[in-house]
Description:
mainly alpha
Amino acid sequence: MELSSVILTTGSSVGFFRLVNAGVTKLPMPESACRNAWKWRNISTSCVHSLITAIWAVLCFFLHPQMAEDLIETHSVFSHALVSFSIGYFIYDFFDMVLNQKLSQSWELLFHHIVVITCFGLSVLSCRYVGFAVVALLVEINSVFLHLRQILRMANIATGTLYRVNSMINLGTYVVFRINTLAWMTRWLVLNRDKVPLLAYTLGSVGMAIMTAMNIVLFYRLLRSDFLKSSTRETKKEKEM
Length: 241
């Protein structure tokens, strides 16, 4: 893809997610979510991005399996477009948070978005490491359930079978597509150290370290919130009986 195509794809993506956000406002909103309508729209828009990107990333490797053998040079127009499309989303979401949320509440995600935009931007502009970027986007498979969890909680459906099933799938996909994927990417970076320029290796290593730390913290929070607390409550009930 030429630079003009990258700019067009990224710009179209920003516009698309603005339209998605506007479309969410037209849909019915649970009364419990009205207290923070912006967050409801933001999470719903993020869920749409995760769903599209998760399917797209899997299709990239299915339609172009050679990319899995060479994550540096080999890629298709389809996979290059995916990374450009995701850059557009992260740019959109960055400004959406800056304009609507306090910095103290969003600095972690803002920093995450800056790292992703920088790494993905270098990838699409240089047409290198596109396969590596697509592997990184496989984490969006988990993000679908992560965002659905937030939507259910905002809709006051934090109990019952649906929430419980989603929590188990969320935790399972978190381990497989987020923690394991990041571990594999870190290992790949170390094994291919001699093929990666110092700047890209440093940027990638710092990015992986930050993402790994953030994901371990989030995993603990999810485990404590959805499983450890409920187990504690059940234990207390048994003692009272």
